[in-house]
From TrEMBL:
Protein name, UniProt field: Polyphosphate kinase
Protein family: Belongs to the polyphosphate kinase 1 (PPK1) family.
Species for this entry: Granulicella aggregans
Keywords of the record: ATP-binding, Kinase, Magnesium, Metal-binding, Nucleotide-binding, Phosphoprotein, Transferase
Entry PTM: An intermediate of this reaction is the autophosphorylated ppk in which a phosphate is covalently linked to a histidine residue through a N-P bond.
Length: 726
C-alpha cells in the first residue's frame, strides 16, 4: 500500500460488497487519509494550551506558573504575527484554493474562520487563569499589582517621583487631528488611547489622543512595601494616572491601554545589488511597520475609542481582543525575578560538570580517547563553551569553523571567536534570519568581520540551522586532526540552562571529514558525495529518513525486530507522516515524543494503531531531537538539529549525526528516552480526535525531567527509576 498514491486508507480503497437486506448495517469505514492529518495551526494552539495547563497547575510553584502564563502570551504573539498574518496575506492575495491535507484541507478563509474562534477562546482562558487563579494566589502570598488609587501615601509619592524623573521625559502625547496624523504605532508597542474633548466652551466634538509607553522602562514599577510583601504598579497604569497633565486643554473622557500586533513575516527577494545583510536590514525596518493583524485593548474600554482604533488599523471586529487584565501578559515574565521568594520558585539545580579523566592532558586528548555525549541542561553547557574557548587559546589549533543561529549577548563563545580571529583562520556562518534575532545577529556579524573573522551567511533561500563547530589542530604527535562539536541546540549559554539538548564531541575521522564537507557546502555551495554518515538537509536528510522508516517496515514484515522512537519538537512533514503510517500498518511499534505541533493522528485502527504520541511540557523546554531505529536487532541512533517538518527537511541547512558508541547509545536509549517514555506527570498523550490527555499514574507519578535532574545533582533527592507498572 502507498498512501501517497491514494486519498483513502487501505480499507476504503476496496468497494464493500452489497449488504443483504436481512443483515445489520456494516460499521462506518475509516475516514480517508486526508482527514488523518491534524491542522498545523490548531495543533500549535493545542501545544500552547498544554503550556497554559502548567500555569493552571497548583502543583507547580506559584511564580513559575506566572512564567508559564507569560510564555503562552509570548507564544501567541509570534503565532499571530507570523501564522495568522500569513493566512491574511494569502486571502489578500486572492488565494482561495484549499490547502493540502496536512494543513487541514481548508481554504485560507475557512482556516481563518476556525482560528478566530479558537484564538478568542484561548485568550479568555488565559485571563481567567490570571484573574481567578494567579492573582488571588499572589495576593495570598502578599504579592500585589495595584491601581494608582490603591497606593498608600508613601507608595504614591514614590511612584510620582519615579514618573517625574524616569517616565515623563520619555513621553510624547499626540492629539489626532488634521495637522497631527495618527502616529506610526510600532509592532507590539504598548500605548494608551484617550478620548478627549476640548475645554473650549460650546465644543462638543471629541478627539483621540495617543501616548506610547516607553519600551526602555520596566513594565512593573516596584513600590515600597512592608517586610515580606511585594507591591507593584504597572507602568501604563502610572502613566494613565497622569495623562490629564499631558493634555491640559482637554477633558479626558476615557482612557485605555492598547497594543497592535503587525505582520512580521520577512519577504525576502534575492537581488544581485544587495547583500543578504542589507536585504535583512531593509526587511526588518519594514517589519516594524507591517500591516496590523490584531488589536488588544482593555476590556471595558470606551466603544468610541475601540471603533476609532479598529478603523485606523483597518481591522475586522474579530481581530479586536478585549483583555480582562494587563494588555500583554508576556510582560509578567519579569514578576518572578522581582520577587525574592525561593519558596515560590523551582528548587535550585546544579548541572553535572564535565571533568577530564586523570590521564588526559586537555579536552582534545580526552576526545581522542572516544566520543563524549552531553545532555543539557542536566550536563553543564560550560563544556561546549570551554571547547570553543580552548580552540581560540590553544596555539596548536590552526583553524576554527562554526555556525551561529542564535547566541547570547556577551557570550563566551562569541568572545572566543572574536579573539581567535586575530591569530587563526576563523570562519563563521551566521544565520541572519533567525526569527526575531535578526537585529542582534547583524550586529554580531559585523563585529566578527571587524575582528578578522570570515563571516558567511549560508545559502540564499535556506536558513542555516545546523549546529556545528570544527577545530583543526596539529596535535603533539605532529598529526593534523579535526575535532568537532555537533548539537541539537543553539550556541547560546543562556537558553542552554532551560532548553534540553544533546551535544557530541568527537574526533571520529569519518564524521569530522563530513562536517568539513558541510562547511564547504555552506560557504561555497559546493555539493559533495562525502556527507555520510551525516544526514544533511536539504540534500540527503529527507530521503534517508524515509529509507530508514521503510527499512523498519520491511524488518517487521520479515518478523525481525522493528521499532522507531523519535523525539522532535514538531512533526508536520506529510511524506514522513505517511511513511510512519505505512510502518505502523506493517506492524512497527512507534513511540513519538513530540513537544509541539503534530499532524499525525495516532491510534486509528488499520492505519496508525501501532503509533503512540506524547508531549512533555515541564520546567525545561524540550528541544533535543533523537531518533532510534531497531534495524532488525542492530539499532541505529541519531541526534541533530532537524525536526520532522518540511521547513527543516527542505528549506534549511540541517545536520543529523549518528551516535555509534555503545555506551552512549545505551545512555540515549535507556536513561534519556526511557525516562521520557516513562513520564506520567508531565506527559500528555495525543488521542485520535486530536486532543491530549494527561498520562495516568499512581501516587506522585514519575517526572522525566525531575528524575534526570536528580541523576545529575543527587542533592535534589530521590533518583529512583519509575515503577514497573508506570
Amino acid at each position: 500500500m502507498t498512501i501517497t498514491k491514494s486519498a483513502s486508507s487501505p480499507s476504503t480503497r476496496r468497494k464493500p460488497p452489497a449488504k443483504p437486506a436481512h443483515k445489520p448495517a456494516a460499521p462506518p469505514e475509516p475516514p480517508p487519509v486526508e482527514t488523518l492529518f491534524f491542522s498545523r495551526d490548531e495543533s500549535w494552539l493545542h501545544f500552547n494550551e498544554r503550556v497554559l495547563e502548567e500555569a493552571q497547575d497548583p502543583s507547580n510553584p506559584l511564580l513559575e506558573r506566572v512564567k508559564f502564563l507569560a510564555i503562552t502570551a509570548s507564544n501567541l504573539d509570534e503565532f499571530v504575527e507570523i501564522r495568522v498574518a500569513g493566512i491574511l496575506q494569502r486571502i489578500e492575495d486572492g488565494i482561495s484554493m484549499p490547502q493540502p491535507a496536512d494543513e487541514g484541507g481548508l481554504s485560507p478563509q475557512e482556516r481563518l474562520d476556525r482560528l478566530s474562534v479558537l484564538l478568542a477562546n484561548f485568550v479568555q482562558t488565559q485571563y481567567a487563569c490570571w484573574n481567578e487563579q494567579l492573582l488571588p494566589a499572589l495576593e495570598k502570598e502578599k504579592i500585589r499589582t495595584l491601581k494608582f488609587a490603591q497606593l498608600s501615601t508613601k507608595q504614591r509619592a514614590h511612584a510620582l517621583d519615579f514618573y517625574a524623573s524616569e517616565v515623563d521625559p520619555l513621553l510624547t502625547p499626540v492629539t489626532i487631528d488634521p495637522s497631527h496624523p495618527f502616529p506610526r504605532v510600532l509592532n507590539k508597542a504598548l500605548c494608551i488611547a484617550l478620548l478627549l474633548r476640548h475645554k473650549r466652551k460650546g465644543n462638543t466634538t471629541t478627539a483621540l489622543g495617543v501616548v506610547t509607553v516607553p519600551r526602555s522602562l520596566p513594565r512593573l514599577v516596584c513600590l515600597p512595601s512592608s517586610t515580606g510583601s511585594y507591591d507593584f504598579i504597572l507602568l501604563h497604569e502610572l502613566i494613565e494616572s497622569q495623562v490629564d497633565k499631558m493634555f491640559p486643554g482637554y477633558e479626558v473622557l476615557s482612557r485605555s491601554a492598547f497594543r497592535v500586533t503587525r505582520n512580521s513575516n520577512l519577504y525576502m527577494q534575492e537581488e544581485e545589488s544587495r547583500s543578504v545583510l542589507e536585504s535583512v536590514r531593509s526587511e526588518l525596518h519594514n517589519r516594524r511597520k507591517g500591516d496590523a493583524v490584531r488589536l488588544e485593548i482593555e476590556d471595558g474600554a470606551n466603544e468610541d475609542i475601540i471603533e476609532r482604533l479598529r478603523t485606523n488599523f483597518e481591522l475586522d471586529p474579530w481581530q479586536v481582543f478585549r483583555t480582562k487584565g494587563p494588555v500583554n501578559l508576556s510582560r509578567m515574565m519579569n514578576l518572578p525575578s522581582e520577587v525574592k521568594r525561593s519558596d515560590l520558585k523551582y528548587p535550585d539545580f546544579k548541572a553535572r560538570e564535565f571533568k577530564l579523566d586523570a590521564k588526559s592532558t586537555d579536552i582534545f586528548d580526552q576526545i581522542r580517547k572516544g566520543d563524549i555525549l552531553f545532555h543539557h541542561p542536566f550536563d553543564s553547557y560550560k563544556v561546549v563553551e570551554d571547547f570553543i574557548t580552548a580552540g581560540a587559546l590553544d596555539p596548536h589549533v590552526m583553524s576554527m569553523k562554526q555556525t551561529l543561529y542564535r547566541t547570547s549577548k556577551d557570550s563566551s563563545i562569541f568572545r572566543a571567536l572574536t579573539d581567535a580571529g586575530q591569530s587563526k583562520e576563523v570562519t563563521v556562518v551566521v544565520e541572519l534570519m533567525a526569527r526575531f534575532d535578526e537585529d542582534s545577529n547583524i550586529r554580531w556579524a559585523r563585529e566578527l568581520e571587524d575582528a578578522g573573522v570570515g563571516v558567511y551567511h549560508g545559502i540564499f533561500g535556506l536558513k542555516t540551522h545546523c549546529k556545528l563547530a570544527l577545530l583543526v589542530r596539529r596535535d603533539p604527535d605532529g598529526v593534523i586532526r579535526r575535532y568537532v562539536h555537533l548539537g541539537t541546540g543553539n550556541y547560546n549559554p543562556v537558553t542552554s540552562r532551560f532548553y534540553t539538548d544533546i551535544s557530541l564531541l568527537t574526533a571520529n575521522p569519518e564524521i569530522t571529514a563530513a562536517v568539513q564537507h558541510v562547511f564547504n557546502y555552506l560557504t561555497a555551495e559546493a555539493e559533495s558525495d562525502g556527507y555520510k554518515p551525516l544526514l544533511v538537509a536539504p540534500l540527503t536528510m529527507a530521503s534517508t529518513f524515509l529509507d530508514l522508516i521503510t527499512r523498519e517496515a520491511e524488518h517487521a514484515k520479515a518478523g525481525q525486530p522493528a521499532g522507531i522512537i523519535a523525539k522532535v519538537n514538531g512533526l508536520l512533514d506529510r511524506a514522513t507522516v505517511e511513511a510512519l503510517y505505512e510502518a505502523s500498518i506493517a506492524g512497527v511499534q512507534i513511540e513519538l515524543i513530540v513537544r509541539g505541533m503534530c499532524s499525525l493522528r495516532p491510534g486509528v485502527k488499520g492505519l496508525s494503531e501501532n503509533i503512540r504520541v506524547r508531549s512533555i511540557v515541564g520546567r525545561f523546554l524540550e528541544h533535543s531531537r533523537i531518533f532510534t531505529f531497531e534495524n532488525g536487532g542492530s539499532p541505529e541512533m541519531f541526534c541533530g538539529s532537524a525536526d520532522w517538518m518540511a521547513r527543516n527537511l527542505h528549506e534549511r541547512c540541517e545536520v543529523v549525526f549518528p551516535v555509534t558508541d555503545p555506551a552512549l547509545r545505551d545512555r540515549l536509549r535507556n536513561e534519556i528516552l526511557g525516562s521520557y517514555l516513562a513520564d506520567t506527570r508531565k506527559a500528555r498523550l495525543l488521542q485520535p480526535d486530536g486532543h491530549y490527555v494527561r498520562a495516568t499514574h499512581k501516587g506522585q507519578g514519575f517526572s522525566a525531567q525531575t528524575h534526570l535532574m536528580c541523576l545529575a545533582d543527587p542533592s535534589m533527592g530521590d533518583t529512583s527509576t519509575p515503577p514497573a507498572d508506570e
